[in-house]
Amino acid sequence: MKETDREAVATAVQRVAGMLQRPDQLDKVEQYRRREARKKASVEARLKAAIQSQLDGVRTGLSQLHNALNDVKDIQRSLADVSKDWRQGINTIESLKDVKDAVVRHSQLAAAVENLKNIFSVPEIVRETQDLIEQGALLQAHRKLMDLECSRDGLMYEQYRMDSGNTRDMSLIHSYFGSTQGLSDELAKQLWMVLQRSLVTVRRDPTLLVSVVRIIEREEKIDRRILDRKKQTSFVPPGRPKNWKENMFKILDKTVITRIEGTQADTRESDKMWLVRHLEIIRKYVLDDLIVAKNLMVQCFPPHYEIFRNLLSMYHQALTIRMQELASEDLEANEIVSLLTWVLNTYTSTEMMGNVELAPEVDVSTLEPLLSPNVVSELLDTYMSTLTSNIIAWLRKALETDKKDWIKETEPEADQDGYYQTTLPAIVFQMFEQNLQVAAQISEDLKTKVLVLCLQQMNSFLSRYKDEAQLYKEEHLRNRQHPHCYVQYMIAIINNCQTFKESIVSLKRKYLKNEVEEGVSLSQPSMDGILDAIAKEGCSSLLEEVFLDLEQHLSELMTRKWLSGSNAVDIICVTVEDYFNDFAKIKKPYKKRMTAEAHRRVVVEYLRAVMQKRISFRSPEERKEGAERMVREAEQLRFLFRKLASGFGEDADGYCDTIIAVAEVIKLTDPSLLYLEVSTLVSKYPDIRDDHIGALLALRGDASRDMKQTIIETLEQGSTQVNPNYVPIFREIIVPSLNVAKLLK
């Protein structure tokens, strides 16, 4: 205690020292004293209050402990009294066993008395119930069946309560009511028959369907009540639970599956369109059934049965199974298309699940696909493989058919503009169009794949077409009398190239989206090149025909006969014009090229005759006469080809100007100007060679060997600038060998 006092004094001294550190604080000593006195009084008051509270708590606790002690003593006395009473009651309970047995027997007898009437009338009730079932009075039959089952179950329950191990009495009761289970099964059969025809029954006699549902609902309630009692007593009557609601949905599910499977009326052997018919029947049946279920059946079932949702699920599952079965069969290409179109498009369209009469209960976006993506992919691969083989076969057959037309004795058909054509382009692109329309029904991706396939096969086909056209030409050249209409059918082949081009462009424009056009269009240049090559070869073969007929008359040019007044050019013009009357059946792009090529070929052949040294003029008069004749014939040819080229908007007079330019060299009277004239010719036609100049000078007949040598050497030393737009014409004219050497001698 003294130690505590010392610590308190030390603390007080320290506190006072802290307050009186400056002289001016001495004036506030009284103020400090009063403040400390107030704090002390406050602390003492709180301390007294805390001590008082503790004392009150201790007082209350002691009081409660005292009361608890009294309560414990009272409980001890009560337990002693109970123990005494229990010992005294044991003997009393044992003496009441007979009473207990009597109560149980009374309960059983009471149940027997209660069901006595039913017990004695069981055979009669069974017969009545059987008659009612046969008459279709299902509700009344079920009521009597419930009475029988109630009597049986009540007796068996009482027996179970009295002696659960007494199987003999239980068996006796069960055998006495043995017909009850048979009636239950017979009634169930009738219910299932009504449910199997529920979609028909709901339209003809909805009351019957409602009765069936009421019976099932009654049985469900009885099942629930018995299962609840089982939790307490462990007793379950025979045949329970019946689970008729569960069985009802199983029956409906089997009915749906059978209805889907039963829609196949034909096979591939009896009808090529068997699958289309099968799928259309399924579509119609399913749509009609679901509309009936939505509008009528839901009114016959309790809401918690969700009958429409369950039926929709059953139909969807049955269709999934059926579609998978069909997909696993060895389907042909058109059958694969029919199946995929139905599965991917028709099923969710307004023609079926998307029908307005099924909305809003049916949301097509929530329906699972009928076929998995893997199965769809496999079917598409099979379809593309089969389609590839079919297209190759179809194209080969179409070409063979077209080739047979080429050897006919009659001219080919003409289109509305009068151009010869065969049916090949129409057949080919009609086939492509049909396959693309079919593919478009399935998906955009498949449509693009089929288009790419068609273009790829078209590329290969055109190569074969080119080869066949070449063989056709070679066969004709072996015997120009056969085929009879060779020219007309060659024209048709040329025109087909233009038709093919236009059809390819049209096909791509119609079936190809812009974003994938670049990838697919890579095949277009190669096809255009092949078609142009076929057309070019065709035009060349036709011109070969022309020049084979002109060969005799071309050989007369630049001869003495020609100089003396031959009509070779007249015949050439008539022959060319006659042929081009037939060539009028060629479509404009190719006819334009062909006319230009014919013009060029005629001029080249004319110049070739000039270079052949068939004649050498002997005098200035002959040179003048020959040159003037060349000019007249050049103008004659110019007039002819202007006439043939009318409407093309293209001027090709330059070819005939070459003949006139050569004629000017021949016509020259002053040999001293010959070098200048020849150099002008060479500058204008830079592809002219030394041998051409030698032959031309030899034709004049007045140039000495030294002059010829000088002109040729001088021209060789000069440089000629070639016009980039110049089209060579002398390059393919070959002067007979040794002519230059001979001419220089």
From TrEMBL:
Protein name as it appears in the record: Exocyst complex component 3
Gene Ontology terms for molecular function: SNARE binding
Keywords, comma-separated and alphabetical: Acetylation, Cell projection, Cytoplasm, Exocytosis, Golgi apparatus, Protein transport, Transport
GO biological process terms, semicolon-separated: exocyst localization; exocytosis; protein transport
Subcellular compartments: Cell projection, Growth cone; Cytoplasm, Perinuclear region; Golgi apparatus; Midbody
Subunit record text: The exocyst complex is composed of EXOC1, EXOC2, EXOC3, EXOC4, EXOC5, EXOC6, EXOC7 and EXOC8. Interacts with EXOC3L1. Interacts with BIRC6/bruce. Interacts with MYRIP. Interacts with SLC6A9.
UniProt keyword Nucleotidyltransferase, yes or no: no
Highest taxon in the source lineage: Eukaryota
Principal subcellular localization: other
